[in-house]
């Protein structure tokens, strides 16, 4: 039973590259502290699981499930999130680079604007910590749905997380305080539509190996 | 419009009567049937250095006030549905009542179980409560470290409470997700807000420091009153 140790994936851009939508300070804390903590706790849970498996300790194995779900989910969600963001004004932020996804969005919600509105309403309706996702149901090129997951619950296979938005307060609070609507409005300026198109058309085989 | 009305009515109410709820939050006030944001009994900066003035101000004026406003909006919809005998809508509104009503209750209780050091914040409990803590946890310090562990273990947003079991009279530590309020079998004695907005501007990801600093501004006199 080998247990692979997970490490913090580097960001595909500089900490200040998402400004003014997300500040450098938020990105540094979010990546270096919050994401790192999920990874540390995931590694600890995996190592405890390996020992419990070796000794066939079923009660311990069961009691570890929630830690795995929370910290593994935290690692997966943040890994997906960093990659589905891009600095504002880059070509990747242009929805024209996501033709198949755009067509599917328009056929599902009537227009890109209607989708943006529906997605925002879903995000702002979250009660507590969680994530908002555009999900392709059942696999690549599936029916699109707006889904929220609580705390660090991930989007489970076979559903495909096309892109996700972190709605934990630590994702925006230092900059937006209680104005989470301002954060939700700004997020569209940094969505990586090219990455979203790739996930929608080809699926996500392993969110930790994007 | 409704917010304006209740606001001015609240000013008028302040000098007069204030309603007391059965949940034990002495500061729950209503004006013309609407919940209103209770005043704090101390200044925003009075809990420093445990909790910064900026945090207290945003937390009270913005976060708590949003729960109050949203609760009142929910209540209006609920009353409309009741008047029409619309059962489906009444049921659909339950999560909103729980979340916004819970947020209002929790924060009201929280402000009251905090106090500046100059007003007795951090002074250990005495009497029956002190005895109950010692006999349940061994010592106040033991209780505090168990409470801090419970707070640190919350996955997501939520609260940790010292509660009294109404059936047995025993005290215990319980955590609640999001704004779920302490109702039913348990009575809230002491609540600590573990939402990130309660500490992030000052402590960022170092939430353990917030949990350890808050004991300096706990109003044990309020907790004793709730216990007895």
TrEMBL record, chain B:
Single GO MF descriptor: superoxide dismutase activity
Domain Manganese/iron superoxide dismutase N-terminal residues, every copy: 36-115
Family annotation (Pfam families): Sod_Fe_C (PF02777), Sod_Fe_N (PF00081)
UniProtKB keywords: Antioxidant, Manganese, Metal-binding, Oxidoreductase
SUPFAM superfamilies: Fe,Mn superoxide dismutase (SOD), C-terminal domain, Fe,Mn superoxide dismutase (SOD), N-terminal domain
Catalytic activity from the UniProt record: 2 superoxide + 2 H(+) = H2O2 + O2
Cofactor: Mn(2+)
Keyword Lipid biosynthesis found: no
EC assignment: 1.15.1.1
Presence of the UniProt keyword Ribonucleoprotein in the record: no
Residues binding Mn(2+): 59, 107, 193, 197
Group of enzyme by EC: oxidoreductase
GO cellular component assignments: mitochondrion
Domain Manganese/iron superoxide dismutase C-terminal, first and last residues per copy: 125-226
Family from the record: Belongs to the iron/manganese superoxide dismutase family.
Function: Destroys radicals which are normally produced within the cells and which are toxic to biological systems.
Protein name per the record: Superoxide dismutase
Source organism: Penicillium rubens (strain ATCC 28089 / DSM 1075 / NRRL 1951 / Wisconsin 54-1255) (Penicillium chrysogenum)
Organism ancestry: Eukaryota, Fungi, Dikarya, Ascomycota, Pezizomycotina
